[in-house]
C-alpha cells in the first residue's frame, strides 16, 4: 500500500478535501463489520460539490457497503456520513431531502407498474400531483420505459429495474445522486442516455457519486475517483491525480495489487 | 419399464442417461430450500400415507361395492396428488426440466426414454406402488383369481398416475417456469393447506353420499374416472364378471399407452423452447392490464402520503398472490371447518362464526408486512418523515380489504342461519378482531419481523427462503398473531356472555360497544407505536431484512433480530414435522371437533374419522380431552426439538456480497 498515489491522510482527509464541511458527501472513519469480515475499514472520503465522483474497486471490495452507509441505508459500526454538512444518521430527514439513491440489489414493490411506483413515491414525498404527473411522464420517456407502461416491476428485466430505480432517485430533484453500479445490465443506448442525464445534472451544479468496476466508463465520466480495495480507501483525488501518467486500468491494477492469470485451461488450447 | 429403458439403439446409453438424470434430481432435492430435512420430512409423510392407503385394503365391508368406493376414492386422491405435487414443487425450483437438455447431443427419443425411466425410479413411485398394492391386499380376500387381476391392475395404476403427471407437467412446462406458474403453484398449495386443515368435512360429506349406495352420483363418478378402473376390475374379478374385469384392465393399459404417445408428442415442443421461461414483459403487460389499471386512476383516496400508501397497498392485495391467497385460504379454512359441517351435520349454530373465524385466520398472515416485502423498505427509508403515513396507510388498506368480506359473510350467514341469539356475539367480537388486528399487526410487523427472501428472488408465494429457521419463526409469529387477535375479543365476548347468562340485554349491548371500542383503541395505539418504532429503529429493521440477524453493532442499538436458532438435523426436522402434524390432528379434529359435536348435539351416527365418536356416549368427551392432552404434549415436544442445539448455528453472519 506504499504507493505514491496513497494520499496524505491527515485526520483522514484526502487532498481534494475542502475541510469547511460543505462537501457534497463526506465520510469520516466509516467502519462496518459482518461477523469476522471487515467490509469497510475506517474509510475517509470527500466528494466536492459539483463533482462527478467514481468509486471503483474489485468485486467484494466494500463499495456497496460504503455507499449504503453513506446514504443512511445501512447503519455503520463507527464513523459519520455528512451530506452538504448534514449528518445522515443524526438528522436523516433533512439529509434525505438532498439525496437521490440507486442501491444495488435491493427489492422494489414488485406488483406496481413503473408509472404507479413513481406516482406513489412523488405523493409520498409530498410533491404536487401535477408535478408528479409531469415528471413521471418525462422520466419514463427519457428512460424509454413508456412502452413497458403496463408491465409490473416483477416482469422487468435487470436493466429496466435499474432504470426505474434511477427514476425514483431523480424524481424529487436531489442535489446529490449516489448510484451503485448504475450502468450494470443497461443496454448501450440507455447507458448513453443516462450518461447525458448525469453529465447535465453535474454541469448544472449537482453532485454525482457512482460506483463501478468498469474503468473505461469511470475514466470517461468522472472528474474525481476513489479506489477501494478490501474495505480500505487506497487512493482518492482528481482523475489525473489517481491515474498519473498511465490509464486508470493500470493504476487500478497497481493499487489493488491484483495478479492477472496468464496460464490455465491447457486442454482448451491443445 | 425394461422395454422403455432399452428403447434406444443401444441399451446402455439410455440407462446412463436415466442414471445421470436420477442423480441430478437427487442433487436438486439435496440443494433445495430447507435441504434434505424438508425432503426427509415430506418422504416420511408420503410413506405414512402410502402405508395408510395399503392398510385401507384390509378394511372389511359387507358390501364389496363399498370397497370399490374406498379404493377408487383413494386412487383419485393419489392421482390428484401426482398432478398437483409437481406443480407445487416446480414452484420451488425442484424437478428436472426437459428444456435444460435441449442442447445435449442426445437424440430426443433417447432423452425421452431417459426422462421417463427417471420418473419411474425414486421414492414417489415406490410409495405409490405401496399405496396401490391396497388392491392386491383387498383382492386377497376375494380369491386367487382376483389377486391375479390385482397385480397387473396395481402396476397399471402406478403407470397411469406417473404418465399423467408427466404429460400434464410437461405440457404446462412453459407456464410453470413463469410467474404465472408460480402463482398457480401457490394457489394449489393454498388448496392443499386448506384441505389439510378442513378436508375432514368434505370426507364426511363424501361418506354420507356413498352411504346411499353404488347408485349415488359420487359413486358413479369415482368408477367412471380412470383412477377407479383398477378397483372396478378387481371387484369384477371377485364377482366372476370377467368381461368387465379384463375390459377395465385393457382400458387402463390403452390409456397408459395413449399417455405415453401424448408425452412423446409434447416433449419435443418443450425441448425446442430452450430456457423455457415465458417472455416477461409481454405477459406481465397483460397481467397488469388484466388487473385493469394500467395507470393510476383519478383518485378516490385523499392525495398525499397516506393516500398513496393506501392505493399502493390495495394494488398489492389485488395483484400479489401472496396477499390474495391469504384471504382465500382464510375463507377456505373457515368454510371447510365451519360452513360445510354446519350444512352436512345440520349445525346452523356454526354459521355465524364463519366470518369471525376467517378474520382470525387472515390475521395470522398479516403480521409480517415489512418482512414480506424484504428490502423494499429502502424506498420508505429514503423518503424523509413518511413513517406515520406508511403505517396508517397499511392499516387502512388492510381494513378496506378484510372488513367488507368478513362483515358481509357474518351478516349474510347469521341471517341465513336464523340464529338470532348470535347477533350480540358476532357484533361484539368481529369489530374487536378487525380493529385489534389492524393495530397489532403493525406492531408485530415492526417489532418482531421475520426476514424473508426478497420478493423478486422468490420462487412462489409460499417460498419462505433458504433459511430453515425463518419458516419456524414465521409459524411462531403467525400463532402469536392468532393468539393476540383472539385475546382482543375476550373482553367484549365476556360482557356478552355475562349478559346472556343473566338475561340482561343491556350487558349484551355493552359488550357490542366494548368490542367496537377495543377495535378502535387498538387500531390507534398499534399504529402509533409502530410508526414511532419505524421512525426510531427503521435502520435496524432494514439491516435485519437486508442482512439477517446481526450481532449488536453498538451497545444500546435496538436489536430487532432474534438469536440465531440452531439448525435442526434432517432426522430431528422430520421428527418435528411429524410431531406438529400429530399434535394438530389430536388437538383439533380428534379433540375439539368431537367435543363441539357433543356440545351441539350432533347426530351420534356422524362419526367419520373422529375416534372418540366410536366410543360409548359417556366416554366420548373424556376420550376427546385425552386426545387434546396427547396433542398438546406432542406440540410441546416439537418445540423442545426446535430448541435443542444439534448443529452449527446458522443465519447470523451472512453478509450480502458488497
Tally of DSSP helical segments of chain A: 10
Counting DSSP E segments of at least 2 residues, the number of strands of chain A comes to 10
Largest sheet of chain B: none
Poorly predicted tracts of residues of chain B: 1-12, 274-296, 553-566, 645-658
Helix content of chain A: 25-40%
According to DSSP, the number of beta strands of chain B is 0
Helical percentage of chain B: over 70%
Largest sheet of chain A: 6 strands, mixed
- Residues in β-strands, percent of chain A: 15-25%
**Briefly, what CATH class of chain A?**
Alpha Beta
Largest interface: A-B, 61 and 61 residues
* Cα end-to-end separation of chain A: 40 Å
Tell me the overall shape of chain B.
Answer: globular
List the secondary-structure elements of chain B in sequence, H or E: HHHHHHHHHHHHHHHHHHHHHHHHHH
Arithmetic mean pLDDT of chain A:
86
Number of domains of chain B: 3
Structural class of the secondary structure composition of chain A? alpha/beta
The class by helix and strand makeup of chain B works out as: mainly alpha
Work out the strand percent of chain B.
under 5%
Radius of gyration of chain A: 19 Å
Order the strands across the largest sheet of chain A as they lie in space.
6-7-8-3-9-10
Amino acid at each position: 500500500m506504499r504507493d505514491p498515489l496513497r494520499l496524505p491522510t491527515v485526520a483522514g482527509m484526502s487532498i481534494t478535501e475542502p475541510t469547511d464541511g460543505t462537501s457534497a458527501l463526506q465520510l469520516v472513519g466509516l467502519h462496518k463489520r459482518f461477523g469476522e469480515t471487515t467490509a469497510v475499514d475506517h474509510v475517509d472520503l470527500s466528494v466536492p460539490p459539483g463533482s462527478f465522483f467514481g468509486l471503483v474497486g474489485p468485486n467484494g471490495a466494500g463499495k456497496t457497503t460504503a455507499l449504503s452507509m453513506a446514504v443512511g441505508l445501512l447503519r455503520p459500526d463507527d464513523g459519520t456520513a455528512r451530506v452538504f454538512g448534514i449528518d445522515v444518521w443524526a438528522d436523516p430527514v433533512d439529509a434525505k431531502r438532498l439525496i437521490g439513491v440507486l442501491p444495488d440489489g435491493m427489492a422494489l414493490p414488485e406488483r406496481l407498474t413503473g408509472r404507479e411506483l413513481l406516482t406513489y413515491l412523488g405523493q409520498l414525498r409530498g410533491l404536487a400531483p401535477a408535478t408528479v404527473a409531469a415528471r413521471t411522464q418525462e422520466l419514463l420517456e427519457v428512460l424509454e420505459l413508456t412502452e413497458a407502461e403496463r408491465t409490473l416491476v416483477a416482469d422487468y428485466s435487470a436493466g429496466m429495474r435499474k432504470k426505474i430505480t434511477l427514476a425514483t432517485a431523480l424524481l424529487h430533484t436531489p442535489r446529490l445522486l449516489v448510484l451503485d453500479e448504475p450502468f450494470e445490465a443497461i443496454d448501450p443506448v440507455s447507458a448513453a442516455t443516462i450518461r447525458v442525464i448525469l453529465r447535465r445534472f453535474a454541469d448544472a451544479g449537482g453532485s454525482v457519486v457512482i460506483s463501478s468496476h468498469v474503468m473505461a466508463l469511470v475514466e470517461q465520466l468522472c472528474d474525481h475517483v476513489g479506489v477501494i480495495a478490501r474495505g480500505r480507501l487506497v487512493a482518492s483525488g482528481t482523475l489525473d491525480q489517481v491515474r498519473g501518467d498511465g490509464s486508470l486500468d493500470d493504476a487500478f491494477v497497481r493499487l489493488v495489487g491484483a495478479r492477472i492469470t496468464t496460464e490455465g485451461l491447457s486442454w482448451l488450447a491443445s | 419399464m425394461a422395454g422403455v429403458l432399452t428403447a434406444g439403439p443401444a441399451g446402455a446409453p439410455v440407462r446412463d442417461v436415466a442414471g445421470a438424470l436420477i442423480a441430478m434430481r437427487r442433487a436438486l432435492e439435496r440443494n433445495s430450500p430447507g435441504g434434505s430435512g424438508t425432503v426427509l420430512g415430506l418422504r416420511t409423510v408420503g410413506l405414512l400415507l402410502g402405508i395408510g392407503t395399503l392398510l385401507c385394503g384390509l378394511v372389511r365391508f359387507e358390501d364389496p361395492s363399498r370397497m370399490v368406493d374406498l379404493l377408487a376414492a383413494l386412487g383419485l386422491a393419489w392421482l390428484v396428488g401426482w398432478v398437483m405435487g409437481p406443480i407445487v414443487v416446480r414452484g420451488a425450483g425442484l424437478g428436472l426440466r426437459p428444456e435444460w437438455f435441449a442442447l445435449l447431443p442426445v437424440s430426443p427419443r433417447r432423452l425421452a426414454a431417459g426422462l421417463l425411466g427417471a420418473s419411474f425410479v425414486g421414492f414417489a413411485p415406490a410409495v405409490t406402488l405401496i399405496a396401490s398394492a391396497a388392491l392386491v391386499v383387498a383382492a386377497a380376500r376375494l380369491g386367487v383369481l382376483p389377486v391375479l387381476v390385482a397385480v397387473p391392475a396395481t402396476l397399471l395404476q402406478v403407470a397411469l398416475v406417473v404418465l399423467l403427471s408427466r404429460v400434464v407437467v410437461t405440457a404446462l412446462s412453459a407456464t410453470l417456469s413463469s410467474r404465472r406458474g408460480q402463482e398457480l403453484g401457490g394457489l394449489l398449495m393454498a388448496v392443499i393447506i386448506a384441505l389439510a386443515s378442513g378436508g375432514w368435512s368434505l370426507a364426511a360429506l363424501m361418506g354420507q353420499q356413498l352411504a346411499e349406495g353404488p347408485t349415488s352420483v359420487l359413486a358413479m363418478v369415482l368408477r367412471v374416472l380412470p383412477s377407479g378402473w383398477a378397483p372396478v376390475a378387481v371387484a369384477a374379478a371377485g364377482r366372476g364378471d370377467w368381461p368387465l374385469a379384463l375390459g377395465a384392465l385393457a382400458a387402463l393399459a390403452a390409456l397408459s399407452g395413449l399417455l405415453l404417445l401424448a408425452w412423446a408428442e409434447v416433449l419435443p415442443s418443450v425441448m425446442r423452447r430452450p430456457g423455457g421461461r415465458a417472455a416477461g414483459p409481454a405477459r406481465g403487460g397483460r397481467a397488469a392490464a388484466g388487473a385493469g389499471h394500467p395507470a393510476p386512476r383519478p383518485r378516490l383516496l385523499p392525495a398525499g402520503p397516506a393516500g398513496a400508501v393506501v392505493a399502493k397497498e390495495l394494488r398489492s392485495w389485488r395483484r400479489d398472490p401472496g396477499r390474495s391467497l391469504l384471504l382465500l385460504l382464510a375463507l377456505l379454512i373457515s368454510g371447510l371447518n365451519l360452513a360445510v359441517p354446519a350444512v352436512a351435520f345440520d349445525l346452523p349454530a356454526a354459521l355465524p362464526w364463519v366470518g369471525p373465524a376467517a378474520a382470525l385466520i387472515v390475521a395470522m398472515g398479516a403480521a409480517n408486512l415489512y418482512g414480506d416485502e424484504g428490502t423494499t423498505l429502502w424506498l420508505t427509508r429514503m423518503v424523509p418523515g413518511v413513517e406515520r403515513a406508511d403505517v396508517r396507510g397499511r392499516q387502512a388498506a388492510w381494513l378496506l380489504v378484510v372488513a367488507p368480506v368478513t362483515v358481509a359473510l357474518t351478516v349474510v350467514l347469521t341471517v341465513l342461519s336464523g340464529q338470532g341469539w348470535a347477533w350480540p356475539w358476532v357484533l361484539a367480537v368481529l369489530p374487536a378482531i378487525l380493529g385489534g388486528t389492524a393495530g397489532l399487526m403493525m406492531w408485530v410487523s415492526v417489532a418482531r419481523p421475520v426476514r424473508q427472501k426478497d420478493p423478486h428472488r422468490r420462487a412462489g408465494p409460499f417460498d419462505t427462503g433458504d433459511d430453515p429457521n425463518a419458516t419456524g419463526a414465521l409459524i411462531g409469529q403467525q400463532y402469536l398473531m392468532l393468539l393476540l387477535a383472539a385475546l382482543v375479543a375476550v373482553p367484549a365476548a365476556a360482557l356478552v356472555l355475562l349478559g346472556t347468562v343473566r338475561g340482561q340485554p343491556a350487558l349484551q349491548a355493552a359488550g357490542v360497544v366494548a368490542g367496537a371500542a377495543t377495535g378502535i383503541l387498538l387500531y390507534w395505539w398499534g399504529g402509533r407505536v409502530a410508526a414511532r418504532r419505524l421512525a426510531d429503529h427503521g435502520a435496524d429493521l432494514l439491516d435485519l431484512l437486508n442482512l439477517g440477524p446481526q450481532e449488536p453493532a453498538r451497545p444500546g442499538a435496538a436489536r430487532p433480530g432474534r438469536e440465531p436458532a440452531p439448525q435442526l438435523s434432517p432426522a430431528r426436522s422430520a421428527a418435528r414435522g411429524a410431531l406438529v402434524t400429530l399434535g394438530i390432528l389430536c388437538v383439533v379434529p380428534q379433540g375439539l371437533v368431537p367435543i363441539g359435536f357433543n356440545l351441539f348435539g350432533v347426530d351420534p351416527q356422524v362419526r367419520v374419522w373422529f375416534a372418540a365418536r366410536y366410543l360409548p356416549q359417556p366416554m366420548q368427551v373424556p376420550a376427546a380431552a385425552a386426545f387434546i392432552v396427547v396433542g398438546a404434549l406432542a406440540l410441546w415436544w416439537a418445540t423442545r426439538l426446535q430448541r435443542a442445539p444439534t448443529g452449527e448455528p446458522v443465519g447470523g453472519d451472512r453478509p450480502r456480497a458488497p
